[in-house]
Design a protein that fits this description.
213 residues, alpha/beta, Rossmann fold, 10 helices, 5 strands, 54% helix, 11% strand
């Protein structure tokens, strides 16, 4: 089943840091569903868009791109300790990511495509989606995964969590919930959502064609 270019539906997948949303998206990718990583695109843009780099450095009050590459540790130190600074940086990064996503969507021919974004709700990207799925994992389990992966210290993880919505605020705005604890099986959950998205595409496509069968 292929969609006409530009007619692919949009499924947003979100979840807190360490929830395993990237693992969930890999399962969708195996099913042939294209995945756009908003976080990866934000990094790409910040590494390549000189005008955006200048705007971010101006907001931060210092050059965060020595040699043209983002000083990630310094940016993290600044923005995760100052919520207003984080919001200002996001206000220039998010529109650029949204534009890239819309351009990417124009070339998608699958019945639906995915935007993976840690801050889907906080950024307002959820408004662009046809459906939203939230990956839910217990707080301490998320911390344990990240510490075990040597990505951050426990303190750094908690600081980042404070700047993200919690599951209680994500769930009411979500169409699907994927539980991703140690004892949960994500493949059946993904297959269920996949089936629902295909049904939605078929329903909308019948409406476009003026058929009811």
């Amino acid at each position: 089943m292929k969609a006409a270019p530009g007619h692919s539906l949009k499924l947003g997948i979100t979840g807190g840091i360490g929830s395993g949303k990237s693992t969930v998206c890999k399962v969708f990718a195996v099913l042939g569903i294209p995945v756009f990583s908003a976080d990866d695109e934000a990094k790409r843009i910040q590494e390549n868009d000189r005008a955006l780099q200048d705007r971010i450095s101006t907001i931060a009050g210092k050059d965060l791109f020595p040699g043209g590459r983002l000083d990630r540790s310094e940016m993290a130190r600044l923005i995760f300790s100052d919520r207003s600074l984080l919001q200002k940086v996001n206000s220039v990064v998010h529109p650029a990511v949204f534009h890239s996503f819309e351009e990417w969507m124009k070339n998608q021919k699958s019945p639906y495509s995915i935007m993976e974004a840690a801050i889907l709700f906080e950024s307002g990207a959820f408004r662009m989606m046809d459906r939203v799925a939230t990956v839910v994992t217990p707080y301490e389990e998320r911390i344990g995964r990240l510490v075990a992966g040597n990505r951050f210290t426990r303190e750094q993880i908690i600081e980042r969590m404070k700047n993200q919505a919690d599951d209680e605020s994500r769930i009411p705005g979500s169409d699907f919930i994927i539980f991703n604890s140690e004892n949960d099986m994500i493949i059946p959950a993904v297959l269920g959502i996949h089936g629902e998205m295909l049904k939605l595409y078929e329903k909308i496509n019948r409406g476009r064609n003026g058929t009811t069968g």
